[in-house]
Fold:
Amino acid sequence: MKWVRSESDERPADLDEQSCPQLVYIRRNIAQETRQDEDGAERVVYTYMEAEIERSIYEALQAQEMGPSTKEMMQSISNLEMQNELIMIALDLE
Structure:
């Protein structure tokens, strides 16, 4: 993925899946700056690093991230949290 420096008058979303049907834009290091324009008036500008990724690749990565092993790990963590909560309740009853 190639990152390029960009700027906008409006604060951009960190993840933009809406602007283009074929691409997803990923943004990081968003910073607000105040600048003076040619007339001397101050204006706010947002600077950031931006990368674009083909939507099909982005969706494949998202599907892989939530693959069966990830779902199993999330379920195991949830079960452990529930067991921990039950133990804490039981200790409070003693």
Notes: Residues 16 and 25 are 5 Å apart (CA to CA). Residues 4-93 form one domain. The chain has a mean pLDDT of 86. The two ends are 56 Å apart (CA to CA).
